[in-house]
C-alpha cells in the first residue's frame, strides 16, 4: 500500500480522513465501554456472573453483524448518492433504511426471544450459569428493534459525512448504562457512611441497564438522519417499498451480513468449544480476553467507517484517484496504529485482564490469551479497514469469502485440534484465532492492491 502513496502530498485527504475518523474512533471506544462496564461490574460477582455474560456474547455479535450488513446495504448507497450530489435519492434511501430497520429489528427480536432460553444451553453454559444467561439474553434482546435503528442509522449518518452525531448518541448510551448498572446490579450498600440504594439484580440488572440505554438511543439516531442538513426528509414523503433500492441493498448487504454471520457463527462455535471442553473459569477468561482485546482494534473500526464513506463517495463522484488514495491511506494508518496497540496489549495483558475480574485464575488465563493474539492485531486492523473500503467500492463478495476461509477452514478446525488433541486449553483457541486474523489481513491487502474492485465499482 505504501508504494502507491506519497504521504507528503496527501495533506487534504489526511485532514478529511481525520475529520471523519476521530469521532468514529471515540464512538467505538464508547461502544466498547458498554461491554466493558457490564463485564467489569458483573465480574465483581465472580466467575458465574462473567460466564453468564460471556456465553451470550457471540449470539449477540451475530445479530449485530447481520444488522450491520443491512446497514451496509443502505449506507453504501447513501455514500454513492452523496458523492454524485443527488439529494433526492439520499432522502429516498433514508426512508427505505427506516423501513428495513423496523422490519429487521422486529424479526430479530422475535427469533431471539423464542430461542433465549436455549441459546446459552447450546453454547455449553454450566447449570449454575444457565438461568442467569437465559435471563440476560431475553432482556437484552427485547431492545433489538431499537438497536436495529441505532446500528443502521449510525452507518447512514457516517456515510453522509456525519460521524459526530453517532458519537453523541453513544456517549449518552454509555453514561446511562453506567448509571443504571450502578443501581441495578448491586444491592443497597454502605460507602463511607452513605447508603447507596440498589436493586441487587446482578446479571439481570446489567441486561436491563444495557437494553434501556439502547432503547433511548435508537429512535433519536433515526430522527437525526431524517433531519441531516441538506437532506431533510420525513415519513410523510412515503414508506412504500422501492424495489430498485431494496434490490441494491440486498446485493450489497447480504454478502456483508453473511460475512458477519460466518465470522460470528465461528465465534459461537469456539465459545461452545470452550464451554463444553474447558471450565467455567476458562469461559469467563475467554470473555475477559475478548473484551480486553477490543481495545487494540478500536481505531481500526473508526478508520474503517471513514474508509467506507470516503471510498463510497469517491465512487459516486467517479473519482478513481481519490478512491484508491483513501483506501490505501486508511489501511496504512490502521496497520501502524494497531502495531502500537498490539505491543501495549502484550506488555500490559495481566494488568488489563485484572481490570475486569478479581479471580486470579480467570486473570491468568485471560492474560495468556491476550499475549498469544497480540502479534496478529495489525493484520486484523488492515482486514477491518480494507473490508470497509472494498464495500464502499461495491466489492462485497470477497470479504465474505475471506471470512469463510479464515473462520471455517483455519480458526475453528485448528482450535478444535489444539484443544481436543493437544490439550492447549484456552491458549489453543486464541492461537488459532491469531493465525486466522493474519491470513485475513494478508488477503485483504492483496485484493486492494490487485485493483479488481475498480471494475466492480465502475471506475475502470
Short summary of the structure?
This protein is mainly α and 460 residues long. The protein has helices at 11-43, 47-54, 57-83, 87-115, 119-122, 130-141, 144-159, 164-184, 202-226, 243-277, 280-316, 320-347, 349-354, 360-373, 377-392, 397-421, 426-450, 452-457; strands spanning 187-191, 194-199. The model has no long low-confidence stretch (mean pLDDT 89).
Descriptive account of the structure:
This protein has 460 residues and is mainly α. The chain is built from 18 helices and two strands. A hairpin with a 2-residue loop joins β1 and β2. Helices cover 80% and strands 2% of the residues. α2 packs parallel to α11 and α10 packs parallel to α16. The protein has a two-stranded antiparallel ribbon with strand order 1-2. The longest helix has 37 residues.
How would the blueprint of this fold be written?
Layout: H1 11-43, H2 47-54, H3 57-83, H4 87-115, H5 119-122, H6 130-141, H7 144-159, H8 164-184, E1 187-191, E2 194-199, H9 202-226, H10 243-277, H11 280-316, H12 320-347, H13 349-354, H14 360-373, H15 377-392, H16 397-421, H17 426-450, H18 452-457
Antiparallel strand pairs: 1-2
Helix pairs in contact: 1-2, 1-8, 1-9, 1-11, 2-6, 2-11, 3-4, 3-7, 3-10, 3-11, 4-7, 6-9, 7-9, 8-9, 10-16, 11-12, 11-14, 11-15, 12-15, 14-17, 15-17, 16-17
Decide which structural class fits the backbone. mainly alpha
Low-confidence region ranges: none
Calculate the terminal CA-CA distance, rounded to whole Å. 19 Å
Radius of gyration: 21 Å
Topology pattern, helix = H, strand = E: HHHHHHHHEEHHHHHHHHHH
- Summarize the amount of helix as a percent range: over 70%
Assembly annotation: single chain
Number of strands: 2
Shape: globular
The largest sheet is:
2 strands, antiparallel
Major sheet: arrangement of strands: 1-2
| Count of DSSP-assigned helices | 18
What is the strand content? under 5%
What is the average of the pLDDT values? Answer: 89
Amino acid at each position: 500500500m505504501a508504494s502507491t502513496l506519497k504521504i507528503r502530498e496527501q495533506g487534504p485527504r489526511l485532514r478529511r480522513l481525520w475529520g471523519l475518523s476521530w469521532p468514529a474512533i471515540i464512538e467505538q471506544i464508547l461502544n466498547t465501554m458498554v461491554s466493558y462496564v457490564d463485564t467489569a461490574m458483573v465480574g465483581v460477582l465472580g466467575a458465574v456472573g462473567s460466564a453468564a455474560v460471556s456465553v451470550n456474547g457471540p449470539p449477540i455479535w451475530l445479530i449485530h453483524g447481520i444488522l450491520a450488513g443491512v446497514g451496509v446495504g443502505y449506507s453504501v448507497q447513501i455514500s454513492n448518492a452523496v458523492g454524485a450530489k443527488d439529494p433526492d435519492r439520499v432522502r429516498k434511501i433514508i426512508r427505505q433504511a427506516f423501513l428495513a430497520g423496523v422490519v429487521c429489528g422486529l424479526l430479530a427480536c422475535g427469533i431471539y426471544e423464542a430461542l433465549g432460553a436455549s441459546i446459552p444451553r447450546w453454547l455449553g453454559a454450566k447449570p449454575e450459569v444457565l438461568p442467569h444467561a437465559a435471563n440476560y439474553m431475553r432482556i437484552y434482546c427485547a431492545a433489538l428493534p431499537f438497536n436495529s435503528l441505532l446500528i443502521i442509522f449510525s452507518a447512514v449518518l457516517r456515510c453522509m459525512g456525519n460521524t459526530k452525531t453517532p458519537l453523541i448518541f453513544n456517549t449518552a448510551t454509555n453514561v446511562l448504562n453506567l448509571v443504571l448498572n450502578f443501581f441495578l446490579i448491586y444491592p443497597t450498600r454502605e460507602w463511607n457512611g452513605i447508603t447507596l440504594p440498589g436493586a441487587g439484580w446482578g446479571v439481570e440488572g446489567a441486561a436491563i441497564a444495557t437494553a434501556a440505554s439502547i432503547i433511548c438511543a435508537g429512535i433519536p439516531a433515526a430522527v437525526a438522519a431524517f433531519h441531516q442538513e441538506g437532506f431533510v426528509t420525513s415519513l410523510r414523503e412515503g414508506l412504500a417499498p422501492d424495489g430498485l433500492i431494496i434490490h441494491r441493498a440486498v446485493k450489497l448487504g447480504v454478502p456483508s451480513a453473511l460475512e458477519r454471520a460466518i465470522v460470528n457463527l465461528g465465534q459461537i462455535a469456539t465459545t461452545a468449544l470452550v464451554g463444553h471442553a474447558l471450565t467455567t473459569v476458562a469461559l469467563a477468561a475467554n470473555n475477559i480476553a475478548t473484551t480486553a482485546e477490543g481495545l487494540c482494534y478500536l481505531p481500526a473500526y473508526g478508520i474503517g467507517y471513514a474508509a467506507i464513506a470516503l471510498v463510497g463517495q469517491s465512487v459516486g463522484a467517479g473519482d478513481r484517484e481519490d478512491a484508491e488514495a483513501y483506501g490505501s491511506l486508511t489501511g496504512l494508518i490502521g496497520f501502524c496504529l494497531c502495531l502500537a496497540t498490539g505491543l501495549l496489549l502484550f506488555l500490559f495483558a495481566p494488568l488489563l485482564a485484572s481490570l475486569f475480574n478479581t479471580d486470579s485464575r480467570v486473570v491468568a488465563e485471560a492474560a495468556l490469551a491476550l499475549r498469544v493474539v497480540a502479534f496478529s492485531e495489525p493484520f486484523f486492523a488492515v482486514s477491518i479497514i480494507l473490508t470497509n473500503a472494498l464495500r464502499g467500492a461495491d466489492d462485497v463478495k470477497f470479504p465474505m469469502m475471506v471470512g469463510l476461509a479464515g473462520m471455517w477452514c483455519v480458526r475453528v478446525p485448528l482450535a478444535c485440534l489444539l484443544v481436543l488433541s493437544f490439550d492447549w486449553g484456552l491458549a489453543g483457541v486464541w492461537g488459532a484465532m491469531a493465525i486466522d486474523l493474519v491470513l485475513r489481513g494478508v488477503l485483504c491487502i492483496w485484493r486492494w492492491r490487485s485493483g479488481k474492485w475498480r471494475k466492480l465499482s465502475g471506475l475502470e
